[in-house]
From TrEMBL:
PANTHER family: SUPPRESSOR OF ACTIN MUTATIONS 2/VACUOLAR PROTEIN SORTING 52 (PTHR14190), VACUOLAR PROTEIN SORTING-ASSOCIATED PROTEIN 52 HOMOLOG (PTHR14190:SF7)
Protein name from the UniProt record: Vacuolar protein sorting-associated protein 52
InterPro entries: Vps52 (IPR007258), Vps52_C (IPR048361)
Domain Vps52 C-terminal, chain residue ranges per copy: 3-297
Recorded GO CC terms: cytosol; GARP complex
One Pfam family, short name: Vps52_C
GO MF terms held by the record: syntaxin binding
Gene Ontology biological-process annotations: endocytic recycling; Golgi to vacuole transport; lysosomal transport; retrograde transport, endosome to Golgi
Length: 420
């Protein structure tokens, strides 16, 4: 097989460059494991579509041509030959023994029984040492397609055989995914060779590619995602989510932690959206996490620049809503300070926020969308503040006339509106 995955190719494995330990002119070239085929799909899903009924792989011809194949390609070829043989055998039995109905089905099962038992044993050995979760999922989908192919040919579908092989594959897939999840959980983020910054992490890229692969394979097979695969995806997402939180905790600035989370969520969603058409629960989970982090980032971005205004709104609004408006009197002096501070600094603060946000995110479009979310939230705070200022308790407060007109703020914000 080509570049077969091994037990070392785990989701949480660090990309370590291995060398011979000899330095100097005659040092061996550093070895770097290529994990591209382990976590990314490429065009392997075509085994379920364009390549499904391709000619069989002839072992000696492939060996002479020095060709290598993925596990699922060999699985498809062997089972296509098996399905064709079963089809021809059934037609022969019905013609030669002149049987039909259940009698023909029972005779066919008896004739093919030993062959099926041998296939189950042979694949059990191969599947047990397969560490490639993408190929395992492809083979599960192939079982379903071959089952349907026999039904379309009006040949006994051998449901028991496909169920036995599928169970082997599902069991192994669960084991391999547990190994991936355990490797992520066991990762010591404080001892990682690559320092953590706000950019997307390569382990998260692997996770995104792997999740995307599972979703694309499911789409290509024409199957529903199913509870088993949903459970596998959610378990893996939970392990990676906990890893992200541990990694973000290594960053000292709370705002940088949010940027790190958003960049990684955005990378994951971008990779999935690039190839997956159908909505999925796992996409919704990651999208919700991203939106939650963006909401927190928006507040964290506004706080240093407009803290007095935000504090005034958060303290006074509950008093109005609860009918304790007489307590607003104590905020008369604070209102003057808030208006003066805002009027003096709002333009400078908006420009500073623009610079901070645009530089924070690796995806320019995502960054500009978040910038607009920050400005939208600012406008809402100003509107809420204006509503509070218009309360009769503050009718004699001179600061009411000094408040910046929201129209001027909107005009200023338009300067930062992105043009794609």
């Amino acid at each position: 097989m080509t570049d077969a995955a091994s037990k070392e190719d785990l989701l949480g494995a660090e990309d370590i460059v291995k060398s011979s330990g000899i330095t100097g002119l005659f040092a061996a070239k550093p070895h770097h494991r290529n994990r591209a085929t382990v976590f990314s799909l490429g065009s392997r899903q075509e085994v379920l579509t364009h390549d499904f009924l391709n000619p069989l792989i002839v072992p000696h011809a492939a060996q002479e041509a020095n060709k290598k194949f993925q596990f699922e390609a060999l699985f498809r070829s062997i089972h296509l030959a098996f399905v064709d043989h079963c089809s021809h055998e059934f037609l022969f039995l019905t013609d030669f023994f002149m049987v039909s109905g259940q009698t023909a089905i029972d005779l066919h099962a008896k004739v093919m029984g030993r062959a099926m038992a041998h296939m189950v044993r042979a694949f059990d050995e191969r599947i047990a040492v397969n560490f490639d979760c993408i190929s395992l999922h492809l083979c599960i989908c192939l079982c379903d397609k071959f089952h349907r192919l026999l039904t379309e040919r009006e040949i006994p579908s051998m449901s028991g055989y496909w169920e036995a092989i599928s169970n082997q594959l599902w069991t192994r897939l669960a084991q391999v995914m547990q190994m991936h999840n355990d490797s992520v959980k066991a990762l010591d983020v404080k001892r990682m060779q690559t320092p953590i910054d706000t950019r997307p992490h390569y382990i998260v890229r692997r996770y995104a590619e792997l999740t995307c692969a599972f979703l694309v394979v499911t789409e290509s097979s024409g199957r529903e995602l199913g509870k088993k695969m949903e459970a596998i995806l959610e378990s893996c997402e939970d392990a990676v989510e906990q890893l992200l939180l541990r990694m973000s905790a290594c960053l000292s600035n709370p705002r940088d932690r949010l940027v790190f989370l958003i960049n990684n969520y955005d990378l994951t969603l971008g990779i999935i959206d690039e190839r997956v058409v159908q909505d999925s629960r796992i996409h919704s989970i990651i999208h919700e996490l991203e939106q939650k982090a963006i909401g927190e980032f928006v507040e964290a971005t506004l706080q240093p620049h407009f803290s007095s205004l935000l504090t005034f709104v958060s303290e006074c609004e509950p008093l109005v809503q609860q009918g304790h408006t007489h307590l607003l009197v104590r905020y008369n002096d604070k209102l003057i300070a808030v208006v003066q501070t805002f009027s003096a600094n709002w333009r400078r603060s908006i420009d500073a926020i623009n610079g901070e946000v645009v530089k924070s995110f690796t995806n320019f479009k995502n960054g500009t969308n978040i910038l607009q979310a920050v400005f939208t939230q600012l406008v809402q705070y100003v509107q809420r503040f204006s509503k509070l200022v218009s309360h009769e308790i503050f009718r004699d407060n001179p600061a009411r006339n000094d408040m910046v007109n929201i129209h001027h703020i909107l005009v200023e914000l338009k300067k930062y509106k992105p043009v794609y």
